[in-house]
Write a structure and sequence with these properties.
By secondary structure, the chain is α/β, with parallel strands linked by helices. The chain is built from ten helices and 14 strands. The structure holds adenosine-5'-triphosphate and magnesium ion (MG).
């Protein structure tokens, strides 16, 4: 079982417009709502791959109820930890012409100490049954910056492997607890290392340096330019095929799920990276925060270019 933890779930509301007119009138051509939050997205893609998964999420208010109902209708196994505040709504303004998203994300509701204790109790009670725990996304207000570190230590003590995908102070603190896998993008790697990660050589050096933190695998994703995977002393580079992009929101989550799928299948590092890159690219080919479909992932799998760098 691959479990995911989402402390700050959201309704992702994608507004499709022709082109963004900042400070002026924008007419919306389509609205799509998806239940989201990074851990939830990972679980939805793992389900697409046919893997057993369970998403745990702190949910509250009318929006929280909608998220829970929608996921349950989809058949996703969901464990709800109730929170007094309302789950947030994040706006994604998708410009059809520029093919880019402008994201406006709410901070999320204030979470109490009691609610966080329930999260820890849930880990204590269940982590022994999890092969992997994916800890993903931002932390809502009220959560101490070392909370992910506490989760990692508790889950590792019960034998679960940890995949971590977050940013800023939460990421800096959490890697001290040595997760098994991290999935930074360029910006997150820059935050961690305090230097630019813009070019191919800088990205490769960043992946190698992050492995020195005592983390077994680093998946450094580079948007349309693909990814580097550093793992067990090897470094691999993947480049996705060119696709018609519909929304890049959630590509990182699909890429993480694809990598875990590869690992679960016992695939080689290069094939696991192929699954990851294909899942990320397939996600980009669909509108909103919609998980990629298996047929598109399988088709793109064969078109990913893979090269060994170390
Ligand atoms: N425009 C694109 N074309 C093809 N593949 C893409 C594109 N954007 C992303 N991908 C694929 O998805 C993977 C992850 O993308 P990216 O680096 O943008 O993640 P991210 O910044 O963590 O995204 P998010 O946090 O929104 O989920 C990339 O490694 C790549 O394989
Ligand atoms: Mg990301």
């Amino acid at each position: 079982m691959i479990a995911t933890m989402t402390l700050n779930p959201t309704i992702d509301r994608t507004l499709e417009i022709c082109r963004l007119n900042v400070g002026g009138m924008n007419r919306v051509q389509a609205v799509i709502d998806h239940p989201s939050g990074k851990g939830i997205n990972v679980s939805r893609t793992l389900k697409t791959f046919g893997l057993p998964t369970q998403a745990t999420a702190l949910l509250g208010g009318e929006s929280g109820r909608w998220i829970a109902e929608t996921l349950t209708k989809e058949g996703l196994k969901l464990e709800v930890i109730p929170t007094a505040g309302s789950s947030r709504t994040n706006l994604k303004i998708w410009s059809r012409e520029a093919k880019e998203a402008t994201e406006i994300n709410e901070p999320g509701p204030l979470v109490s100490e009691k609610e966080l204790e329930q999260v820890l109790a849930h880990i204590e009670a269940n982590a022994a049954h999890w092969q992997w725990l994916v800890i993903s996304g931002s932390m809502p207000p009220g959560v101490p910056s070392d909370f992910y570190g506490t989760l990692i230590t508790k889950a590792k003590a019960q034998g679960a492997k940890i995949a971590l995908d977050t940013s800023g102070a939460a990421l800096k603190q959490a890697i001290k607890a040595q997760p098994d896998l991290i999935k930074p993008n360029e910006t997150e790697a820059e935050e961690l290392l305090g230097r630019y990660v813009r070019h191919e050589t800088e990205a490769e050096a960043a992946a190698a340096e992050l492995l020195q933190y005592g983390i077994r695998c680093v998946l450094l994703t580079l948007g349309k330019d693909g990814a580097f995977l550093g793992c067990d002393g090897e470094i691999w580079r993947a480049v996705p095929p060119e696709i018609s992009v519909k929304s890049t929101v959630g590509c990182g989550d699909a890429a993480l799920a694809g990598l875990l799928y590869g690992f679960r299948q016992g695939a080689s590092l290069q094939d696991a990276l192929r699954w990851s890159t294909a899942a990320g690219a397939a996600n980009a080919s669909l509108p909103g925060t919609e998980p990629p479909t298996l047929d598109v992932i399988q088709m793109l799998f064969h078109q990913v270019l893979i090269k060994r760098h170390l």
